[in-house]
Fold this protein.
Amino acid sequence: MSIETKDHAELAETFNRDENRVDWHDETLWWIRQKRDKSVHQLPEWEELRETASQIKHNVLSNLSSYLQTFEANAIANGVKVHWAADAKEHNDIIVGLLQAKGIKQMVKSKSMLTEECHLNDFLEKNGIDVIDSDLGERIVQLAKEPPSHIVLPCIHKKKEEIGELFHQHLGTPAGNADPQFLTETARQHLRETFLVRKAALTGVNFAVAETGEFVVCTNEGNADMGAHLSDIHIASMGIEKIIPERKHLGVFLRLLTRSATGQPITTYSSHFSQPRKGQEMHIVIVDNGRSVQLGREDFRNSLKCIRCGACMNTCPVYRRSGGHSYHNAISGPIGSILAPNLDMEKYADLPFASTLCGSCSNVCPVKIDIHQQLYKWRQVIVKNGYATTGKKASMQLMSFTLSNPTAYHTGGKVGRWVLKHAPFAVNNKFNPWYKQRDMPEPPQASFGEWYEKNRKSK
Amino acid sequence: MSSRDKILAAVAANQPQLTALPDISFLKGDGTGALEKFVNTLTAIGGKVIEISSLDDIVAHIKATTTLSHRVISTLSGLSEATEIINDSVVLPHTFQDVELTIINAHLGVAENGAVWIKDDLLNHRVLPFICQNLAIVLQKKEIVPTMHEAYEKIGLEKYGFGTFIAGPSKTADIEQSLVLGAHGSRTMTVFLV
């Protein structure tokens, strides 16, 4: 995909060309953030719930190797087959191996960000296996041959007219019909046929309970259940960090997850899979893919507490105005920006800089991940490792010189104000990145230092 | 070394010092007004609640909302006059694709989110509450708990093959955040309170 060669700023610039769309995207996500607030404010114990969830997840990280083994033993006792994948390639090989062993050439998949991270769909296609994404938003981006732009709302970047056009091309709906009710009904009919004929279903995992060996999958559409209960073989892919210790802890996390994600009190379906149904095979693939490395990074290990609610994206002023695709990673937004550099520091060196460090993400995070602090720490690691861009390095050196040299600082301020006032064309041009999609500010009459000198010191 | 052993070794080497699990017993809901809260919450998320005094009221509901050509199934033996009773787990789950209305019992309801809990011992077929066009649940009023904490306390460590919380009809807002009821699961959800 060509977008992988551009960095966040360049991709955001493309997104920002259509100002009306940016405003619409911004307002839509902020509306979801407001729904979250309304829902959260109904629970006086919300902060205690967050703290408890964070502590449970901390215990999980501190005892993960033991919990994983307990989970495995209990899942096997339940009749589930457990597989381990060190990386994305091994995960994909296991899935293809399971399907080929049964001669299955078609699979239906519900939402799984892990399979996006592993680029499973491309791999299946190369191996002659047809896969259909059953979540409506995922199906839409699949038809558009795009990755999801948001972990909870995969096609939040698309207008209904574009979706209507996609359905017209691929599902034969009348041209120009963009009614969400009509399009959803079309998808329901089309995917019902899919559910009824596909012998293999893959789902993600929201929570895996060590104590019982069961896993929980949450959806609003019912697509995970339709796929799983009609299939001969159900494969569930999970990252090692999905473990929670005990069944009763689900109470804490299920109360937090959907309120944080969409403002609903719970998803329509929270399905607990423990044993395969009679005659069915159930497999769990437990995937590391860099997570154990992140676990060893003291400053960044808390990112593994994430329960994938998307609240940090909905609230982020940068995400809302740059779009999910500008992050060129399966998981976008603030949390994606601290997970991605762990996978490839050079490729994702730009992402921790795609933030204002305002801290809104940390404030809404249901498991209290210190997201904005980790973004700040990643910047330092990235610069120390030599992955900052030349322009960034040069401007940082100039800034460092100016801020440590009073004469340069005062002269710089004066020159800046003079230029803004008398020669605005010198900065209001395309060579100044701050001028893009922005108006430069009115220059102040004097610096704060000069103002203070005049108004306060003399008195 | 297998991938399993490699992963477990890497995790063991990198995991931080053990911290204790927090006590969660202080997280409790308020039982007062749980019934009213359940009704209000479920209604707000698109469900429908009907108080009934006997199964006869359900029979009347079936007659009012379906026609003779509709396939109406149930796992409640008390509804054998008005529905096709599903007590055989041998048939393929796909054979339920033409079901108009499914009526099943639920173990408990949760006031804070309008969800009901159903395990496979009440289902016979796991697919039943998902594949039907319309879903109806029979729930005892006394089985309504305030929050998810009480729900899991009731569920305890009982073994089951499959269990699910269902809260309202299936829905999606994937197209421009416009809420549409009836995504892939049931288009409606009615709870009969006894």
The mean pLDDT of chain B is 96. The two ends of chain B are 58 Å apart (CA to CA). Chain B has five helices and twelve strands. The first strand of chain B starts at residue 48 and ends at 51.
